[in-house]
Write a structure and sequence with these properties.
Layout: E1 5-10, H1 15-23, E2 47-53, H2 57-66, H3 76-80, E3 87-90, H4 97-106, E4 110-114, H5 124-134, E5 138-141, H6 148-158, E6 165-173, H7 177-182, H8 185-188, H9 198-208, E7 211-219, H10 222-227, E8 234-241, E9 246-252, E10 265-271, E11 275-280, E12 284-288, E13 294-298, H11 300-308, H12 317-333, H13 341-360, E14 364-365, H14 366-372
Parallel strand pairs: 1-2, 1-3, 3-4, 4-5, 6-9
Antiparallel strand pairs: 6-10, 7-8, 7-14, 8-9, 10-11, 11-12, 12-13
Helix pairs in contact: 1-12, 4-5, 9-13
Length: 375
């Protein structure tokens, strides 16, 4: 049995960071790392990079300059046929995900797909059919779960340190003028419920389990109106889980940020024995101790090389490597992991329910969406 799995990336804009995470060293305190030599350990223990594909030749060339000597064909079919390719990582615009997932499954590959893995309920059946036909696995690229404070918070929650989780409060607030410049399709081809809100909504599903009812409101910010958005870029979503617990997700993508007061992504867990707050980008976990005192764990200076490559605090190198390693280990050991396909479907249904709730000004039952698509 193989000890490591080969990963190839489709979409070499955002996917370029994934490629660098697998091909470059963890830097020391004064560098940005270097291209790994053969056999040299890097961020990933269970994955190695095979190459990448993009329909844009210039992006393939940039990737080749970043990580030379790998496989960067002009044809997607040729890319998918590479014999060392075990996992296809998809980092393309949202509307292309379903077709690429199906093609990867048909080629006999496992799949990592950035969130949301689809943004249209009508695409779910084709993805499920292709997965069943291939017997391969899909992991949704919910990278925040693999950021150090959130992973540590999860470990402590699973160990029972916070008791029963009674309320989950998640947010992702980030001014996105820069994103519209590089990804104009975000203005016309999707909704922020599937973009930024995919992070906090996934965290609600992660801790609360299957969701029963969703109630959401939304509005368009001044920035959103300026760029021509037709759907909200400010959302507040309340959920009621199947087991009776509640949670809230909030997102604002046109705000004037106050970073010293609030991090872009925050996850607050209120438990029967304790409370905790995980933060991104600052790499902090704040929590109550056994005596009720407050404890702050700060990984920024220890881990900024691994996670951020000593670049802007917000790069995803460490999260991508940990996500890929987690998936590869699960495949090699034939064990479950999270979030795989069916949990990803739950989150897509949650996102669509929130979108409809805000649009129609009514609560939406997840069961009605499952019935709509025959699940």
């Amino acid at each position: 049995m193989a000890e490591r799995l080969g990963v190839g990336i489709i979409g070499l804009h955002e996917g370029k960071s994934f490629l660098k995470a697998l091909t470059h060293s963890v830097p020391d305190s004064v560098s940005h790392g270097h291209l790994l030599s053969s056999g040299e350990p890097g961020r990933s223990e269970k994955c190695f990079a095979v190459g990448g594909f993009d329909i844009d030749h210039s992006k393939r060339q940039v990737a080749q300059d970043l990580a030379p000597g790998l496989f960067y064909p002009e044809s997607l079919d040729e890319f998918l046929a590479h014999p060392e390719l075990d996992i296809v990582a998809i980092y393309t615009p949202d509307s292309t995900h379903a077709d690429l997932i199906v093609r990867a499954f048909q080629a006999g590959k496992h799949v990592i797909c950035t969130k949301p893995f689809v943004n249209d309920l009508s695409q779910i059946a084709a993805v499920l059919d292709a997965q069943r036909g291939s017997g391969k696995r899909l992991m949704v690229g919910q990278s925040t779960r693999f950021f150090e404070p959130f992973a540590q918070q999860r470990r402590r929650a699973e160990n029972g340190e916070f008791g029963d989780i009674e309320f989950v409060d998640a947010q992702y607030c980030h001014r996105m003028d820069w994103f519209y410049d590089k990804s104009p399709w975000a203005i016309t081809d999707t909704d922020w419920i599937f973009l930024g809100m995919s992070h906090p909504l996934d965290m609600l599903r992660w801790y609360l389990g299957p969701i029963k009812t969703v109630q959401a409101i939304g509005t368009i910010s001044a920035l959103g109106r300026e760029v021509g958005l037709k759907t909200p870029d400010v959302y507040s979503v309340q959920v009621h889980s199947q087991d009776g617990r509640i949670g809230r997700a909030f997102g604002h993508y046109g705000l004037i940020e106050l970073p010293s007061a609030r991090n872009a992504i925050e996850l607050m867990l209120y438990g029967s024995k304790g409370t905790s707050l995980a933060q991104y980008h600052d790499m902090r976990l704040k929590r109550t101790g056994e005596g009720g005192h407050e404890i702050t764990e700060d990984w920024l200076y220890l881990e900024r090389g691994y996670y951020f490559n000593n670049e802007v605090h917000g790069m995803h190198y460490g999260e991508f490597a940990r996500l890929a390693d987690t998936f590869a280990r699960a495949i090699l050991k034939e064990e479950p992991t999270s979030p795989e396909l069916h949990e990803g479907i739950d989150v897509v249904l949650l996102m669509e329910a929130a979108r409809r709730s805000a649009r129609d000004n009514r609560p939406v039952e997840i069961a009605e969406l499952r019935s709509e698509i025959g699940l």
